[in-house]
């Protein structure tokens, strides 16, 4: 006779081997990360390597928090991109700005979070928690960005991916001129053709310097509509080529929403038939009970159409410090999965946009009819856009 508790006791027994000091990171994760937040980190590592890195999955990554100032661009992001484990990225502009320091030969130093900030300001030292750098690092990077952005090829509206691709080429040149290698995400993404988007282009020192140039007559403008449509096109392309879409969310904030809104853009706004992202892996310290997007769970995202409801088993949220979790995930993936062929999505943007446009035009009649029916259910007797306008 089956005991009533049996269905709940099917998980592996907790019976780890003693740690010897000879374990690899991957061994440690599998043997000792068995419960609580460590258990979620193990589940996240296994979801990433066993399912998200299958050949047919296009992996989009978001990046928030001061990751690159702490060196995580060099230690984690570049290896993930080089291995074909990350195909496209949505980052805060700040992470890409601080990433450039390293390629320009500008030093970031370990410091202390208990320093006297008034004294640091007086001495010309900038602090990001326990990372210190000289104020001149900002001024030098600003000058580089302004000089590059003033070039003729930048004098037009463009998506943030195109801007970062062009900027990354110049960052790579400077990196090589200084005899440096693998210092910059911008430079690596340029070489690997990994599109880098920024969900809020004006919200960083890169955007601030571009804004300064606008005062001087520059024609450079960030085309945010292109960003919205190109990112949606990447996801649609993954689905329409018998593939899947996986999202690796480091942190939360605007990049998280910009990544996940690709599906509502496809389904809700464009009217194209789709189901949602297939895999969702988030690392965060944000709680879900405050109502903020950063802590919103994948289950909640299902209600928006962001996540395919049939794929909820393919979702994990890791609660913890991303400066710990991301290196562990990177080491685990590198140890447990072979490199994947590069998708080089940057060079495929035009073709992907053509598919999106074709399906959008085909879905217009359905989308408008659906909207009209929805309005009539909510407001019986309402007569479409003209009636709404009169209200």
**Structural classification:** alpha/beta
Summarize the main sheet.
Answer: 6 strands, parallel
User: How many distinct domains?
Assistant: 1
Task: Report the end-to-end length measured between terminal Cα atoms.
Answer: 67 Å
CATH architecture: 3-Layer(aba) Sandwich
Low-confidence stretches: 385-391
Supply the CATH superfamily name.
Deoxyhypusine synthase
The radius of gyration over CA amounts to 23 Å
Strand order of the largest sheet: 7-2-1-9-10-11
Report the average pLDDT across residues: 94
CATH fold category name: Deoxyhypusine Synthase
Helix content: 40-55%
CATH class: Alpha Beta
How does the overall form come out from the CA principal axes? globular
Counting DSSP H or I runs of 4 or more residues, the number of helices is 16
- Count every beta strand, where a strand is a DSSP E run of 2 or more residues: 11
In short:
With 391 residues, this protein is of the alpha/beta class. The chain is 50% helix and 12% strand.
Helix/strand layout:
Layout: H1 25-32, H2 36-52, E1 57-63, H3 72-82, E2 88-91, H4 93-103, E3 109-110, H5 117-123, E4 125-128, E5 131-134, H6 135-149, E6 157-158, H7 160-177, H8 185-192, E7 196-198, H9 205-215, E8 221-222, H10 224-240, E9 244-250, H11 253-260, H12 262-269, E10 279-284, H13 298-303, E11 315-319, H14 322-336, H15 349-378, H16 385-390
Parallel strand pairs: 1-2, 1-9, 2-7, 6-8, 9-10, 10-11
Antiparallel strand pairs: 3-5, 4-5
Helix pairs in contact: 2-14, 3-8, 3-14, 6-9, 7-8, 10-12, 10-15
